[in-house]
Amino acid sequence: LAGVNRNRTPRVVVIGAGFGGLWAARTLAQGNVDVLVIDRNNYHTFLALLYQVAAAELEAEDIAYPVRSIFWKHSNIDFTLAYARRIDLQNRIVVTDGESISYDYLILATGSITYSFGLPGVAENAYCLKTLEEAVALKNHIICCFEAAAREEDKAKRESLLTFVIVGGGATGVEYAGALAELIHGPLVKDYRTVDFQSARIILLEAADGLVANMPQSVRAYTLEKLQKMRVDVRLGAKVREVTSNAVLLSGQDNITTQTVVWTAGVKGEPLAELSGVATGRDGRVPVRETLQVLGQPEIYVIGDLASIKENNRVLPMVAQVAIQSGVSAAQNILRQINAQAPQPFRYHDRGSMITIGRKSAGVAIGARTYTGFVAWVIWLVIHLFNLIGFRNRMMVLINWAWDYLLYERAVRFVFPSEMPSLSKLSSCVRVGGLDKEPPKNSQ
Ligand SMILES: Cc1cc2nc3c(=O)[nH]c(=O)nc-3n(C[C@H](O)[C@H](O)[C@H](O)COP(=O)(O)OP(=O)(O)OC[C@H]3O[C@@H](n4cnc5c(N)ncnc54)[C@H](O)[C@@H]3O)c2cc1C
Q: Is 397 a residue whose pLDDT tops 90?
């Protein structure tokens, strides 16, 4: 086996270099342990700004950071680029697409994937927004729709090219709808002078009776009003029953002819835990003890989006703060276990939530206080800039935002030639089959 622990320093393997995995590894660096971080990508993605990549506002590189360089200063942390296929719980081995890696303690931080709820056609025909590849593919597709519309003579086909449907009125759907509206009714108007922008439509479909359900009422009302002002056609109570290659079919409502469906309506736990025989809920997340350990496996911790962490009778949301704080807590508990101390229960400190709808408009909820409009937007900008990893990334994002803000211009409207994999292979369950599909049984 590769990487067997010969000097008996305990080895902690962290699968996933997202928010949870990174903060866990950094905390572990302070202990007398060997840490190995595994990720299918050699970069960390700042997912909160992914929608801006898909809306031609930022480049992919601006929100990605090489994992190895994050750990330069920590001599006891190493990184392996590999896809974790399965965990052999009995022998404490992570089976990857390359080597098999043994562990003394394991932190599962593989996050979540897009979930279609089994609706027909979503996996094959919809665009997702969960990974950098998906964001770049979506941006390319949007630009290509305008290129095609500019030379399309058939009115119905042109309208279908210029109709953009976003499914899901949560934070990702709302933020993308706003960013897309600003792209289309801003810089693209100058780019495509022959296109009739009156027929360009952005439709946001939400099955519930309101947007951003986790936000206070004032922020929800502000979000709806703002999007409508930005010419987004928000349809509440709209239930999708199927997505075809050129339409969204709705229950009891008109169907919408379109070439673009962006699916942000569902997420579930990344399947590694489930495939390894770790008990998961219907949402694919792993119910953990209050110490974040897996029931019956005290050497395995689950954190972040993948963990179903109950506090005060509610499951904590899939947000970056939960991932970061649970990562730190799991790492501290492992160091305690190594020092023969009992692991401590995890307590989440809610620092508030925020959403941006567009230029100078956002909603922020911190404790009982809510802010909307320009003030909220400035808070949002500062917090996101501060949380980005890497000085270069912060500078590039700041420059792009300033450019966009001052000149009403988007700098990233390129479609570089590429051999993109087909759409069905682009989901975050990627490289193994596509949305909702199981990875092939492994390969030791
Ligand atoms: C578009 C979007 C916008 C968001 N906006 C916000 C926001 O504004 N604020 C907020 O708080 N939260 C936001 N979130 C949610 C937040 O990003 C997640 O809650 C957070 O990233 C979860 O962290 P994690 O470490 O659990 O998982 P992730 O950050 O998703 O990291 C998982 C890591 O595991 C790797 N991985 C997965 N499977 C495997 C495998 N089998 N083998 C090897 N590696 C694997 C992945 O490559 C990834 O690096 C957003 C999410 C999305 C998708």
A: no
Q: What is the Å distance from ligand 1's center to 326 Cα?
A: 13
Is residue 55's pLDDT more than 90? yes
Q: Please give the Cα distance from 204 to 189 (Å, whole number).
A: 21
Pairwise CA distance, residues 371 & 378, whole Å: 11
Q: Which residues pair with 356 in a beta bridge?
A: 362
Could you give phi then psi for residue 191, rounded to 5 degrees?
-70, -40
Give the pLDDT band (50/70/90) at residue 426. Answer: very low
Rounded to an integer, what distance in angstroms lies between the CA atom of residue 281 and that of residue 357? 32
Protein residues whose CB sits closer than 6 Å to any atom of ligand 1: 15-21, 38-41, 47-48, 50-51, 83-84, 109-111, 129-130, 171-172, 270, 272, 304-306, 318-321, 323
What's the pLDDT at 391? Answer: 78
Average pLDDT over residues 174-197: 94
**Residues designated catalytic:** 175
Mutation to probe ligand 1, out of 23, 285, 319 (largest number of atoms < 8 A from CB): 319
Residue 275 predicted with pLDDT over 90: yes
CA distances, 349 to each of 212, 311, 322, 366 (Å): 21, 11, 8, 12
Residue 202 exposure: Cα atoms within 13 Å on the Cβ side: 26
pTM: 0.90
